[in-house]
Design brief:
Elements (H helix, E strand, L loop, with lengths): L14 H16 L8 H15 L4 H10 L4 H11 L10 H19 L5 E6 L6 H13 L7 E8 L2 H9 L1 E2 L9 H7 E4 L2 E4 L1 H4 L2 E5 L17 E5 L9 H14 E8 L14 E6 L2 E6 L59 H9 L3 H11 L7 H13 L3 H14 L4 H13 L3 H16 L15 H17 L1
Parallel strand pairs: 1-2, 1-7, 2-6, 7-8
Antiparallel strand pairs: 3-5, 4-5, 8-10, 9-10
Helix pairs in contact: 1-3, 2-4, 11-12, 12-13, 13-14, 14-15, 15-16, 16-17
Length: 477
Amino acid sequence: MRGLSSHTTGAAGSRSALLAQLSGFVETCLGLHFPPERLGDLERGVGSAAGEFGFSTIDSCIEWLLATALSRRQIETLASHLTVGETYFFRDRRVFDILETQVLPAIIESRRGRDQHLRIWSAACSSGEEPYSLAILLTRMIPDLKDWKISILATDISPLSLKKADEGIYGEWSFRDTPRWVKEGCFKQRADKFEINPRIKRMVTFSCLNLAEDPYPAIINATNAMDIIFCRNVLIYFSRDRADAVIRNLSRCLVDGGWLVVSPVEVPGTVAPPLLHPVRFPGAVLYRKGAMTEDVIPRPATLPAMAVARPKPAALGGSGKAPGTARPVRPKKKPQVPVTAAGDGGPSPQQARRLADQGRLAEALAVCEAVIPADKLNPALYYLQATILQEMGRTGEAVVVLQRALYIDQEFAIAHFALGHLLQGQGRHREAGKHLAKACSLLQGLGHDEVPPEAEGMSAGRLIELIQAMQGLEGRG
């Protein structure tokens, strides 16, 4: 164990004074808010973290935290002890009933036979039960799932939680108040544990993200153009101003008509149309991006879908169709916007990015392809084209385009990072490792807080930590 830090503060002998200082530090670096009435919670959390940091006393740990320039991993470790990651599969079944009977059918119907894609983000996924629940739900709702491009992004600030989520192995406690068919149809029993079906597991991508500091929406971390965002039981830890900022950023990550799922008590009062407006369902309130409408959904005539006993999901051998569900609410049609808006000088990379952020991927790709011939030796244009192709599910083409960018510029760190990520997803681990190592080497030549080209505000230090996390997940695989 580490001894007492030699650093002294003006209130070294006062636990309460130390906690008050630590509260300010924690809010600055993590966005977590511990007012005077919650300093007891802060003390318990630091007491839990002290042993992991190697201290035998809380005071010595607090003094060290206040005196040390913490690494991102140390900050994330602290955060994991200051927040409660307690969850289970299909937690708050009313919300999942609404998704199954109202929200998802409308999105699926509007895209079937055309642009068959769906993007969902679990923005505080903890140990993975929430994003896996979403994947399980989709497997039984979409019989032709293989013909769809499904993206379920799951992020959390805690590396330990993400490690457990990536393993996909759970005990009985994770299935409390969960329909029986979930465990029986979607998991394989291993002694007293249950391992999630590999086909469901592959639907979810886990990544470390700090809602208080990291940039979003951003193509580089795939947080843009989301149809649905879950961000539950995390805003309660933020101050009102920080929670308001998080809500605004999350709303920018949504496509028009997209849905934000939070607890009503977590939403700051400043959230108002036209950004987001509440949609009242029986027993729950969701928030929708777009013009204010009288979106009050009638109660289904039958029992909620999740309350009814179910066979195995469609993708795993069951029927997949939920009988007796209510008629879905159709999203309102939006007017088509020309690729080149009035006043623009023509197609541009900025325009392609804007369209991609809005989820208008085919238009974004068309703009990008129109721009490239005039600047064929610009690797950033190929990188932009590759990110759009990736979001469209055309991963093979994205790999080729990234290789083209690196042929032009071998020192393009973000292209190495993106290519390593894609190759890792394809199971080409040896090639992926080379590109991730090259990206890490290039980034280490920059200042920790320096932002590389095309990194969308993400610092070199943060990117290095993401690469190390990816390599860690790869090592466990």
